[in-house]
Structure to design on (681 residues):
């Protein structure tokens, strides 16, 4: 894996956004060959989305030939609810960029047949040629998407019941009322994300530090599902200093020492204006 | 990008780089319009996988709901109360000109007139939506003749009337028809007015109190029967008195039925009301304030003598008097001038000033589901303003109907 450590949240968000930008621009997507991007929600990637919007507004990045697949969505929450992941993606990303609405895919948590919806989603990903880069986050319990502790590490898109930890963590978006937080979600599986050509996990904040430690310094374990990516050929973890607080000094020093190598991935930063 | 037609073939316009008035705040958001109505872009994106057909760069302008003037007697030489063969030509002329002031809907107002005038004029103008030819007509505002003689102001005394026992009979006898009438101003102290107020309410006509010497309890009684507006607060009514606040007391009355609001018109031209009085009213009851022009024939015309109803008026600067007296006969300020003056005199926010000219009159007339606001589904009647609240462009049903020269 690459472990990219930046000083703070802003710098981590910027690094991640630049990486995504370079990957898309370098790929030279076209009508015949779309760039497929997997996307997360939550407070961690918010800064990254802001930066990507900036890049789009300055004319350096276009999403015209990008197809996106979000990781998850609550079950039973009306799509227009301000906390639905559809609302999040519209307000924080889609409405500011030039993506074709037909290419923005999010699981429908209000589908009549949830299982069919999940299977169809897997097929859509396959039809799009698989995911080129899957961006994700990590929960305090080490989950990727809503693959809660105990999820199979080869799982596919399916319905999951949320763990208590996750419900508590999300309560802040529902007026701190636990009873208002949805209890189920549709989520891509660990296996679904593992199928991507490349995986980038964003981890910021001290409250995620223990999960990061479990994910990269301990073994592959279905109790900390992000650990599955130890077995992926191309994983990048982008984090800030605070997220490394539970790691060994040796690990942090080693990867910090590699920053000059990592930074070559984002410097120079590419632009469609130069194409 | 491939074609996005799904729910409707109509072109989708996206207003960008603007600050829109939504949920009582100016917000940096794009405004989407289709089929003459405000469109929900999120629904468009997810349900229809649709996107804009054309983008309009607003250059940082404020986008507000088009202004609604519920009291305007004429302008540009046209007097709505003057009987003539082609009333609609006069209404159309004014309707077209007021687009320049950001007004997208209005109530042509008739002052106290003889029944013959009402019978001739009322049937000639139907309620209709606006467009490139002019602002929409929401219905007539009939100010009089059932008003107080003592507080008639510029209204001709010989045409004033009272309610005989039937009440409603007098209404129909005087006006002929209420089909295209949005509002009636009357004096509630007139005997038998209560049943008239109820009748008008039942017919969907807004009842306003004005040109009256009513005390507070008579006014409250009228509100209980359905009255919901005060015509040009402070003018043509008893002044506020601390032991009987009169009609002015409605602003803070505790006798208003639950769930109902009493609105009040203010002519914020700097002449009809002292700024301190304006502030007292605004601070006492900000959500009820409705900006009106009460504009007369001479609005838009040069100084001199002009006709209003059955009377003659004299224009001097921004003042309009009954010729030969010091009685104000109406205002010649335009709606956008009133919005600017109100904001400056009341020291209120831009949002408050804009809502007093659009949202509040829409609520008064019970049409706020489609006018006076930029919520999804509302009519796309818009006014684009610069930071000084000067009108740059006016739209009706999403179509540009007036643009200021640079």
């Amino acid at each position: 894996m690459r472990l990219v450590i930046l000083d703070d949240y802003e710098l981590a968000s910027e690094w991640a956004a630049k990486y995504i930008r370079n990957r898309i621009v370098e790929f030279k997507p076209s009508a015949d060959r779309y760039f497929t991007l997997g996307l997360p929600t939550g407070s961690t990637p918010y800064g990254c989305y802001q930066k990507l919007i900036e890049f789009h507004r300055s004319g350096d990045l276009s999403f015209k030939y990008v197809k996106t697949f979000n990781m998850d969505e609550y079950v039973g929450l009306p799509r227009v609810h301000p906390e639905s992941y559809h609302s999040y993606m519209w307000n924080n990303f889609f409405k500011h960029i030039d993506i074709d609405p037909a290419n923005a895919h999010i699981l429908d948590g209000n589908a009549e047949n949830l299982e069919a919806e999940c299977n169809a989603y897997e097929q859509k990903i396959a039809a799009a040629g698989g995911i080129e880069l899957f961006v994700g986050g990590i929960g305090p319990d080490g989950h990727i998407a809503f693959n809660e502790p105990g999820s199979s590490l080869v799982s596919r898109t399916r319905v999951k019941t949320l763990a208590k930890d996750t419900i508590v963590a999300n309560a802040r978006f529902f007026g701190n009322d636990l009873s208002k937080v949805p209890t189920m979600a549709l989520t891509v599986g660990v296996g679904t994300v593992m199928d991507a050509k490349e995986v980038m996990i964003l981890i910021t904040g001290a409250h995620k530090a223990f999960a990061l430690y479990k994910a990269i310094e301990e073994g592959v374990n279905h109790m900390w599902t992000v650990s599955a990516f130890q077995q992926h050929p191309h994983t990048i973890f982008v984090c800030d200093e605070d997220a490394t607080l539970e790691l060994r000094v040796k690990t942090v020093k080693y990867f910090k020492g590699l920053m000059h190598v990592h930074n070559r991935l984002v410097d120079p930063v590419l632009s469609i204006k130069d194409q | 990008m491939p074609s996005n037609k799904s729910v409707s073939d109509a072109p989708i316009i996206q207003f960008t780089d603007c600050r829109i008035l939504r949920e009582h705040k100016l917000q940096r958001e794009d405004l989407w319009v289709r089929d003459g109505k405000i469109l929900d872009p999120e629904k468009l994106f997810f349900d229809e996988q649709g996107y804009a057909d054309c983008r309009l760069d607003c250059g940082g302008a404020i986008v507000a709901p088009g202004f609604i003037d519920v009291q305007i007697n004429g302008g540009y030489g046209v007097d709505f109360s003057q009987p003539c063969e082609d009333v609609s030509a006069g209404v159309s002329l004014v309707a077209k000109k007021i687009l320049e002031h950001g007004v997208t809907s209005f109530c042509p107002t008739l002052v106290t007139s003889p029944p013959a005038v009402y019978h001739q004029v009322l049937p000639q103008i139907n309620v209709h939506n606006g467009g490139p030819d002019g602002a929409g007509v929401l219905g007539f505002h009939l100010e009089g003749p059932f008003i107080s003689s003592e507080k008639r102001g510029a209204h001709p005394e010989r045409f004033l009337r009272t309610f005989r026992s039937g009440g409603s009979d007098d209404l129909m006898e005087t006006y002929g028809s209420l089909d295209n009438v949005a509002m009636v101003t009357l004096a509630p102290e007139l005997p038998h007015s209560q049943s008239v107020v109820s009748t008008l309410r039942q017919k969907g006509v807004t009842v306003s109190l004005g040109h009256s010497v009513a005390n507070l309890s008579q006014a409250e009684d009228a509100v209980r029967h359905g009255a919901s507006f005060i015509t040009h607060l402070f003018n043509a009514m008893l002044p506020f008195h601390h032991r009987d606040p009169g009609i002015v007391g409605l602003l803070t009355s505790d006798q208003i039925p639950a769930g109902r609001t009493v609105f009040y018109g203010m002519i914020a031209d700097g002449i009809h009301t002292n700024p301190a009085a304006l502030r007292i009213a605004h601070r006492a009851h900000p959500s009820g304030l409705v900006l009106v022009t009460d504009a007369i024939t001479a609005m838009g015309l040069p100084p001199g003598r002009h006709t209003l109803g059955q009377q003659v008026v004299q224009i001097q600067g921004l003042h309009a008097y009954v010729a030969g007296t010091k009685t104000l006969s109406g205002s010649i300020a335009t709606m956008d001038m009133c919005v600017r003056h109100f904001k400056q005199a009341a020291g209120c926010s831009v949002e408050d000033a804009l809502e007093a000219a659009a949202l509040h009159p829409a609520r008064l007339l019970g049409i706020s589901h489609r006018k006076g606001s930029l919520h999804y589904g509302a009519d796309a009647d818009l006014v684009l303003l610069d930071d000084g609240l000067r009108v740059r462009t006016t739209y009706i049903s999403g179509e540009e109907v007036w643009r200021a020269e640079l």
